[in-house]
Amino acid sequence: MQIAILLFDRFTALDAVGPYETLGRLPGAETVFVAERTGPVRTDTGNLALTADRTLAEVPHPDLVVVPGGPGQSALMTDATLLDWLRAADATSTWTTSVCTGSLLLAAAGLLTGRRATSHWLALDHLRSYGAEPTRERVVVDGKYATAAGVSAGIDMGLALLGRIASDDHARTVQLATEYDPQPPYDAGSPGKAPAHLVELLRSRSRFILT
Amino acid sequence: MQIAILLFDRFTALDAVGPYETLGRLPGAETVFVAERTGPVRTDTGNLALTADRTLAEVPHPDLVVVPGGPGQSALMTDATLLDWLRAADATSTWTTSVCTGSLLLAAAGLLTGRRATSHWLALDHLRSYGAEPTRERVVVDGKYATAAGVSAGIDMGLALLGRIASDDHARTVQLATEYDPQPPYDAGSPGKAPAHLVELLRSRSRFILT
User: Fold this and answer.
1) Which of A86, A176, B3, B18 could form a disulfide with B194 if both were Cys (CB 3.0 to 4.6 A apart)?
2) Which of B100, B107, B111, B124 is catalytic?
3) pLDDT tens digits, residue range A161-173?
4) Does residue B73 fall inside a structural domain?
5) SS3 readout for B32-76
6) Is A163 a member of any domain?
């Protein structure tokens, strides 16, 4: 099985690395990081670059596609090269997946029409404009489409897909190897749990990010 | 504040990216990825490279040091260039930290002598050989030394340090922005929770990895 993880300028690192570190441990799978051009691709902070080893054109038929999100997603919503690649890859993929605002790219490519999907909580409602049904869950699976909520949710999605594709025990082994026994020091990871003034703070900032 | 995140051949990606994505959101901080040489540094799977933007020599006095782990740690336990850099950086740092088997490198540099520290559960006992006191907790803070357990524990450590360095509310804001509301689909993230046969499976494999 070939797993293609997309990179683009100003993606969010953990969106890509969460699925890589879990789903990428699928036995016999080849994981390849792809982008429009090969070479280093900078994240949203500008302080980190991940290497794209192959161009989109070199990986036309991955079995599993992972599309991360991040501020750079906005600029790609009408990028014909990327959207055409997503459609072509999806035509033969076994799984088409996203983390965070990566689902907006899948939706813009027309791949989530009529499907339940999730996204970063700040972007969730935008899915409706592209024909998807916004679903406030951490990981949403509808047919062969798996979408994860914001950033860190890609870890949970990766383990869930490992269980379906390999086995429950293999997913548990990867969870144990990555010591994924989360103990966040705060309980503020969703808008329903965080203090209201912090939810409002991020909402006010997002008006500049998401539009 | 300057945050230096170390990269080395065959490190584990999430060990570095967890703290980057949380602690790196410290207001006013400059995060820089460092290695013995600049350029792409391959992870333990070989399928991903992160870019080191600066050499160790170019970043002699970071305020906060993050040392990730991974299979490549073993080869560095007597690497004079790295251990000298760790000692010199530690001499002026505000915080010296690690994720996973990165704590073995801190210990090999003599920085954890007599201190409580943690590591990946498979490596925890090795800390004692280097004079540290193995402590089976997800995040251990002893003075200015913060160590995290395996791989994903760096996310929890990053948030805990954000709270101490900035404020509880800033840490909560980053937790909300990264939607870190973990919902693992399995409960196998520690040797005390995972099925015994999977714990034994990883123990038998680790004899070849950790020695």
Assistant:
1) A176
2) B100
3) 999 999 999 999 9
4) yes
5) EEEECCCEEEEECCCCCEEEECEEHHHCCCCCEEEECCCHHHHHH
6) yes
Q: For residue A183, is it left (φ>0), alpha (ψ between -120 and 50) or beta?
A: beta
pLDDT digits (tens, 9 = 90+) for A43-58: 999 999 999 999 999 9
- Region of B46 please: left (phi>0), alpha (psi -120 to 50) or beta: left
B-chain CB neighbours of A177 within 8 Å are 150-151, 202
Q: Please answer whether residues A34 and A4 qualify as being in contact, where contact means their C-beta atoms are separated by less than 8 angstroms.
A: yes
Output the domain CATH number for residue A108: 3.40.50.880
**Beta-carbon separation of B151 and A18 below 8 A:** no
Residues of chain B neighbouring A198 (CB-CB closer than 8 A)? 169, 172-173, 176
Residues in chain A: 211
Task: Look at the alpha carbons of A75, A77, A83, A89 in this order and tell me if their dihedral is positive or negative.
Answer: positive
The ipTM is 0.96
Is A2 in a helix, a strand, or coil?
Answer: strand
CB-CB contact of B99 with B68 (8 Å): yes
**Total structural domains within chain A:** 1
The Cα-based distances of B121 to A106, B13, B65, B178, B190 in angstroms read 38, 18, 22, 26, 8
Q: How many Å apart are CA B161 and CA A85, to the nearest integer?
A: 41
Q: DSSP code of A210?
A: -
The answer to whether the CB atoms of A173 and B51 lie below 8 A apart is no
